[in-house]
Amino acid sequence: MSSTPKVALTIAGSDSGGGAGLAADLRTFCALGVFGTLVVTAVTAQNTLGVRDFFAISPAMVAAQLDAVLSDMDVRAAKTGMLATSGIVKLLAARGAAGELPPLVIDPVLVSSSGKAMFPDDDVAGAYRSLFAHAAVVTPNLPEAALLTGRELGDLAAMETAARELHALGPQLVIVKGGRRRDAEAVDVAYDGRCVTLLRARWVDTANVHGTGCTFSAAIAANLALGLEPLEAAFEAKRFVTRAILGGSQWKLGAGHGPLDQLGAAAQATTV
Length: 272
Prior knowledge:
Layout: E1 7-13, H1 21-31, E2 35-47, E3 50-56, H2 59-70, E4 75-80, H3 86-97, E5 104-106, H4 124-131, E6 137-138, H5 142-149, H6 156-167, E7 173-176, E8 185-191, E9 196-202, H7 212-225, H8 230-248, H9 262-267
Parallel strand pairs: 1-2, 1-4, 4-5, 5-6, 6-7
Antiparallel strand pairs: 2-3, 7-8, 8-9
Helix pairs in contact: 1-7, 3-4, 5-6, 7-8
């Protein structure tokens, strides 16, 4: 008889194409052996070519879902994805300030894959900065870190400066993801208030990268739920997401950026 699994929570939007958002998060939780619960923040109409439309869930309904899960389940870690409106971000910040959230991994979904700000009429970026004080880990990609700091991030030194600036807002660990730099390696810059650490992995030449950020942050949350410390959780997540990209690199799902193979990644014995 198997033991009761640890529980993780994703607070994110749906993806009708199945590649990112809640779908990617729950596959990642399953692959890493934790039980996944969810709070839906938005319903999107999207596929491998991009987001066509979305509908934001009201903060009151987000709060109701959150209460339902946390009042009943022993959630060991949570992650956020698309939070859709500043009202939802502020709700989570208030819950965090009240000590009502588990250890939180924040993937600040602010910029589309084309580089366009997703919420130009709402101060979601400003609201995120207030939420960071209640985070265990924050994982912006390059456009998101640039939006949050007002800096151009063209090299590792600039990424480190951004990581230090965002860390000053209160999270335990900031990871500025550098996968979009398209070097021989995919290098992320992590800062925990004491040391700068580079998370390195091989660059995988594939268009199938839809859901990479979701998978990375979900894997960190799963590893936190399993008892790992933030930096160790990030190292393991980096290995996992690289295997997942490799596993789906030759898939032909859709005409655009295809998904990752999270479930296959868990079965791979080779560490990358």
